[in-house]
Structures are given as structure tokens and as C-alpha cells.
């Protein structure tokens, strides 16, 4: 399936990720079917897509308003019917192999033979998921970031049996809907961003658990330090700049970083004491203590809009 031939898109799963995908595909002018087994969940999802579109329109991110994109959205609780005419399927069900495999078996059985089957998984391997389908060459991982309708990045990676044409088509489709795709050369659990996030989160949790600083100060240190430059300077360019060239950085900072790395956390699961300390410290953060979660999310989204506007203006 070539990107120019894609007209009908089905989003399997209507949680936050599915809602975000449906929003983007509808804005792109595609015929979008949002599928979920729960009629109540589908109703809530449609309402949220409408809110997403209004939010984007109110903030100058839509051309022509929110009415036209919303008209492209349909729902269907029956998976077989929902994918029967799909050219591209974006699956966003719970992130575990048994559930993903069960859904992919159904999609594979009922979607047109040339449809692209994509998963939104945040850490699983397509090589494992595609073992259960009859046409593994058309399966690909296309991993977004929350909120899906606002964060531009998407990671694209195939499994061992994925055709290169499938990867390329998914990549080009993401470009068409305004995403900034990155292509992984090979599979790895967590892909790029979630591995970076996992390393950072582990160290942040360890600093809290070890009594080095509380959650409020750790988040402020990140936001007022790394966070200011991270939107436009990644970790490798940052190292290059710090050393006035990556060769100088490797030569001059190796010992300094060795001392840091040797003292950093290496655990891979939360201990009971760590959980208790972390929960207590995060719940004591001023923003978490003073505002309901919805207000914090709305604030986050407003900040993201301002960042996106600045990025478009500067870049």
C-alpha cells in the first residue's frame, strides 16, 4: 500500500492514544473509523476528539476550523467490520504481547490483504507480534508520544519480517499528517525515547529514594536546567558543544563521566521502600498537591502549544 493510496484509516482502541491518532488522521482528511469494544468508551472518545480539535483550532493549529475534520470520524464496536475496508490500521490496545497478538490475529484476518497494520506499542518488539499473522511483511511499529495530537515525534521500526516498503510507507504517511518521524535501524525494547526516558526516570527516582533531593526540586532542576535547552539540543549535540567538538568531549570528560556512571543506579524494579518514598514525595509536590490532574494536563497542553508555536516561528 502506497501512502497516496491510503484513504481509509482505522484506529483500534479508543483510549488516549487512539483518540490522539483519530484526531490527527481526521485533520489529515482521511476517512477515520475509531474502534473499541465498549460503546460507552467510544462515546467518550468521540467527545474527546471533538475537544482536541477545538483546542487545536482555538490555538491556531488548524486551518479551516474543527468542523470539517470531525466530519471524517466514525465509530464501530465491531473490529472485523471496522477494518474491512481499511488501507491503514493503527492499533493502540494495552501494551502486552497476549493482547496485541490477539488483536493482530483479528485485524490480519479481516483487513484487506494490502492494508498496512501498525502498532502504537511503546516498548514491545514487532518481530514477536508479527509471528501470529499470515502476512507479517505488512506489520510495522509506529510509536507516538502523549499527547499524540500535539507531540510531533513518532518512531518507526519494522520487525524481522517487515517489508522495507511497509516501513517506508508508514514513514511517509507520518510525514503527510505532520509528524516528525525517526526510523530505527533495528529493534530494541523501548525504542529511542522511552529508553532515554527510562534512564532519566531511574536516576530521578533513585535520587528521591536515596534522600538526595525531593521530587519538587528534582523536577525543577530538570525543567530549569536541561529542560530549557533540550527542545532544540539533544544529548549528543550537547556533548559535542560542551567539548567544543565530540573528540574533545570524549578525551576531556571521560573520567568525569566515569565517576558519575559508576555511582548511578542499576536496579530494574522498584523496591517496596522505594515505592513508598517516591509516592510520598511526588504527592507532596506543590503542583500535584494544589491542582487536580485534569488542570495539570490542560496546563501542560497549553505549554506545549506555546512551544510548538515558538518552534514554528524559529525553525
**Radius of gyration using CA atoms only:** 21 Å
**CATH C-level of the largest domain:** Alpha Beta
Low-confidence stretches: none
Q: What share of the residues lie within helices?
A: 40-55%
Number of helices: 14
Q: Structural class of the helix and strand makeup?
A: alpha/beta
Order of helices and strands: EHEHHEHEHEHEEHEHHHHHHH
How would you state the average pLDDT, rounded? 95
Write out the strand line-up for the largest beta sheet, numbering strands in chain order: 3-2-1-4-5-6-7-8
CATH topology of the largest domain: Rossmann fold
Strand percent estimate: 5-15%
The biggest sheet, with number of strands, parallel, antiparallel or mixed sense and barrel status, is: 8 strands, mixed
Got a strand count?
8
Query: Judging by the overall fold, what is the CATH architecture of the largest domain?
Result: 3-Layer(aba) Sandwich
The global form is: globular
Task: Tally the structural domains.
Answer: 2
Distance between the termini: 32 Å
CATH superfamily of the largest domain: NAD(P)-binding Rossmann-like Domain
Amino acid at each position: 500500500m502506497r501512502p497516496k493510496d491510503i484513504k481509509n484509516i482505522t484506529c483500534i482502541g479508543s483510549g488516549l492514544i487512539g483518540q490522539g491518532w483519530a484526531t490527527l488522521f481526521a485533520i489529515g482528511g482521511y476517512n477515520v473509523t475509531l474502534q473499541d469494544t465498549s460503546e460507552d468508551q467510544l462515546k467518550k472518545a468521540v467527545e474527546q476528539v471533538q475537544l482536541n480539535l477545538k483546542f487545536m483550532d482555538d490555538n491556531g493549529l488548524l486551518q479551516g476550523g474543527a468542523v470539517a475534520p470531525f466530519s471524517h470520524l466514525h465509530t464501530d464496536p465491531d473490529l472485523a467490520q471496522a477494518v474491512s475496508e481499511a488501507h491503514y490500521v493503527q492499533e493502540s490496545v494495552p501494551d502486552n504481547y497476549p493482547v496485541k497478538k490477539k488483536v493482530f490475529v483479528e485485524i490480519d484476518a479481516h483487513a484487506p490483504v494490502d492494508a498496512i497494520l501498525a502498532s502504537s506499542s511503546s516498548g514491545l518488539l514487532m518481530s514477536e507480534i508479527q509471528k501470529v499473522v499470515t502476512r507479517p511483511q505488512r506489520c510495522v511499529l509506529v510509536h507516538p508520544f502523549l499527547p499524540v495530537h500535539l507531540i510531533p515525534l513518532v518512531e518507526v521500526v519494522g520487525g524481522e519480517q517487515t517489508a522495507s516498503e511497509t516501513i517506508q510507507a508508514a514513514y511517509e504517511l507520518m510525514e503527510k499528517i505532520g509528524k516528525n518521524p525517526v526510523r530505527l535501524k533495528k529493534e530494541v525494547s523501548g525504542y529511542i525515547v522511552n529508553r532515554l526516558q527510562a534512564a532519566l526516570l531511574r536516576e530521578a527516582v533513585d535520587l528521591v529514594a536515596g534522600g538526595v533531593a525531593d521530587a519538587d526540586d528534582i523536577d525543577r532542576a530538570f525543567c530549569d536546567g536541561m529542560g530549557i535547552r533540550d527542545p532544540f539540543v539533544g544529548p549528543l549535540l550537547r556533548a559535542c558543544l560542551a567539548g567544543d567538538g565530540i573528540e574533545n568531549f570524549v578525551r576531556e570528560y571521560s573520567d568525569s563521566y566515569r565517576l558519575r556512571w559508576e555511582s548511578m543506579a542499576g536496579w530494574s524494579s522498584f523496591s517496596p521502600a522505594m515505592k513508598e518514598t517516591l509516592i510520598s514525595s511526588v504527592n507532596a509536590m506543590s503542583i500535584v498537591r494544589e491542582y487536580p490532574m485534569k488542570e495539570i494536563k490542560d496546563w501542560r497542553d497549553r505549554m506545549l502549544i506555546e512551544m510548538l508555536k515558538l518552534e514554528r516561528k524559529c525553525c
